[in-house]
Amino acid sequence: MNQEIMRRIRQVLLVLLILGLLYYPFYSGDSRTDCKTMEAAITKLIKSETMNKQDANGLKRYYDISVKDTEGFILYTPKSMMDVDELLIIKLKTGDDGAVFRKAVEARLATQLKNFNGYGTNQTELLNKHKLVIKKGYLFYAVSKQADTWKQIFQDAL
């Protein structure tokens, strides 16, 4: 009888182990979505006549972030110096990078608020309604009238 109980316990443990392994990918911390997939999902809504896609130099210029510190990034900035629409998505190398990149984004936001303080009320309003999220191994930052839509697409793509 003891052997029968032990056999049942082993069977239950084996089933639990298998279930745990099957569900692990769905509950793990980081998204399996790569930057190219993320970009394909979100750039359909980017207006190329008002925004420029930036490269590694733009990431360094606007945020003082080196591309080698990321797993990938998407950065769009306004074509006009009087606009503040901006989209930044960074795939983090480690969870610790989120705090560092958040500070860089907050510094950029503070600079933009300072630049438009006193005369750019529309720009200041958009900046104050920015979206900043760190989720599943990604940092998302958006300033735009479309920021909520971009954020939803970002979250759906994770």
UniProtKB/TrEMBL annotation:
InterPro entries: DUF4358
Cross-referenced Pfam families: DUF4358 (PF14270)
Domain of life from the UniProt record: Bacteria
Protein name: DUF4358 domain-containing protein
Organism: Copranaerobaculum intestinale
